[in-house]
Design brief:
M1 Pyruvate Kinase, Domain 3, 3 domains, eight-stranded parallel barrel, six-stranded mixed sheet, elongated
């Protein structure tokens, strides 16, 4: 069972998607990767969900991948004597280190690292942008701010700081515990929230130590100043438009989405576009026209994957949301403009044999009527190098490792299959042809490109390309 779609679909788990039989329905409707949000998931539920996802993949003969999204540091104010207060524009309001309940003039900020980092002129955003202030005076015990956008705030609402780089790890003690639980049960991708600097990525990669791939969520303005370095260290990126839209003016987010997508593709790293893609389908069976256009633009731009959040986690129509996303992607990919847009973003290959072969495979596929590119890969590197080139034929990744197959499920245009490693060149070509035929990517008389490495079984040794004809 497969979907003839290059852009992949990520769906977030929740009560709506874990109901009896729903995982199978979502997988058949088009989901490639299931996301588990650790902000709302215990270790027990995580293990149960991952086991259920693995069973779905086995039942349908296609790798079902799991992305675990770590909560990251949640910055919140303290409490108020009256539960909530109204802040008026122009009023002065103090964030301080006093744990006593707050009032209309002050509130406890239980994060000394923030007070140490705030400076006059820095913006302070409370409750996802409902209230906005700017700091006029700050020291290590308090920060006095003026209200720019007034409103009501209540106990323990979230705080965002778009101008402030906080000297705190992207990993909280909860994240460390959640990460270990995820690695122990063998998840495929780990998403890191609130990445500010390359060091945040390096920290988690040292802990993960190759047991999963690491995806950096770009949702802080500070990350944009060091974007290329973060991409280099990351295995993938997520454009987390929700928090980006809180900490930056909303009108800047579409341009940043394009910028992040293109920068990630230049380095051959998969990028996921997320947040509010089909938001109205939480309660409605059909999306709005604007939402359809939004999803389509992400696909046109060449995103590796598009993601559903509350639509699949708590919405009334999770299966319909996945099916609609699938239809949008298929329609875009058949549009005459799609290929010209994708081709215009090609990156300069690195001076390596693997990159040279990937580019040659793309060029050969465009010159000849090739039905598929079949890449033998141990680590997955061969397949994602070809995926970066956005060749027109589908990319079949043959690997002896189920872990590699699952990790590749998020890459643009890659269809992973688990098989024993090739014994020799003839076996490599013969089984590539057999797989392409059995999976209905090609038929007798069609040509395919076969890519691999000699000697067999060694990682990072891509050095061979063959043009093969399927015979009866």
């Amino acid at each position: 069972m497969r979907h003839l779609r290059r852009c992949k679909i990520v769906a977030t788990l929740g009560p709506a998607s874990t109901a009896e039989g729903m995982l199978d329905k979502l997988f058949l409707a088009g989901v490639d990767v299931f996301r588990v949000n650790m902000s709302h998931t215990s270790h027990e539920i995580l293990a149960k969900n991952v086991a259920a996802i693995r069973e779905v993949g086995v039942r349908h003969g296609r790798p079902a991948a799991v992305l675990v999204d770590l909560q990251g540091p949640k910055l919140r104010i303290g409490t108020f004597l009256t539960t909530f207060v109204d802040l008026l524009p122009g009023a002065r309001f103090t964030l301080d280190s006093d744990p006593e309940p707050g009032n209309e003039t002050r509130v406890f900020l239980p994060h000394p690292e923030i007070l140490r980092a705030l400076r006059p002129g820095h913006a302070v955003i409370i409750d996802d942008g409902k209230v906005r202030l700017h700091v006029v005076e700050a020291d290590e015990t308090h920060a006095v701010a003026v209200v720019d956008v007034g409103g009501t705030i209540s106990n323990r609402k979230g705080v965002s700081l778009p101008d402030t780089e906080i000297a705190v790890s992207a990993m909280t003690p909860k994240d460390v515990s959640d990460l270990q639980a995820a690695l122990d049960i063998g998840v495929d991708w780990i998403a890191v929230s609130f990445v500010q600097r390359p060091e945040d990525v390096a920290e988690i990669k040292a802990i993960v130590d190759g047991r999963a791939l690491v995806m950096s969520k770009i949702e802080k303005p500070q990350a944009l100043t060091k974007l290329d370095e973060i991409i280099t260290l990351s295995d993938g990126l997520m454009v987390a438009r929700g928090d980006l839209g809180v900490e930056l003016p909303l009108e800047k987010v579409p341009g940043l989405q394009k910028r992040i997508t293109r920068r990630a593709r230049l380095q051959g790293k998969p990028v996921v576009v997320a947040t509010q893609m089909l938001e109205s389908m939480i309660n409605a069976p059909m999306p709005t026209r604007a939402e359809v256009s939004d999803v389509a633009q992400a696909v046109f731009e060449g995103a590796d994957a598009i993601m559903l959040s509350a639509e699949s986690a708590t919405g009334k129509y999770p299966e319909e949301a996945v099916a609609f996303m699938n239809r949008i992607a298929l329609e875009v990919e058949s549009d005459p403009l799609y290929r010209s847009i994708i081709n215009s973003q090609r990156a300069t290959p690195e001076p390596t044999a693997a990159d040279a072969i990937a580019v040659a495979a793309r060029d050969m596929a465009e010159t000849l009527d090739v039905k598929a590119i079949v890449a033998w890969t141990s680590s997955g590197a061969t397949a994602f190098r070809i995926a970066r080139e956005r060749a027109n034929p589908p990319i079949l990744a043959l690997t002896p490792h189920i872990e590699t197959a699952r990790r590749l499920a998020i890459f643009w245009g890659v269809y992973p299959f688990v098989t024993k490693d090739a014994e020799d060149v003839d076996d490599m070509v013969d089984r590539a042809c057999t797989t392409a035929a059995n999976e209905r990517f090609a038929a007798v008389g069609d040509s395919i490109i076969v890519i691999g490495g000699i000697p067999f079984g060694e990682r990072g040794g891509t050095n061979m390309m063959r043009l093969a004809l399927l015979k009866g």
